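Extended Data, panel c. Modelled sequence:
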Amino acid sequence: MALIMRGVTECSLCGSVLEKNAEIVATSHFIHDENDPLWRFSDSGMHRECFLNWEHREVFVRRFNLSLGKTIWGNSMRHRMDEAGEIHTERADE
């Protein structure tokens, strides 16, 4: 998961600081190709409002789910991102 220091870390979309009370979206590193245009948003934090208005949101969510969402952990669980950027842990057979 992205390391975020509230009040210090900047939103990867707008560049403003992620304040202590801000709703945020954050992911683990899941895009490995540094030449990928979405690479810098993988393993980063962003304001939820910025994320919801981001032109690449749908593609980013789809890419997260095709990558990390397909990984089934030892406890038969996986992580899936919804359209609002919330990451849910669910049974792999759901």
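The first strand starts at residue 24 and ends at 26. This feature is highlighted in the accompanying rendering.
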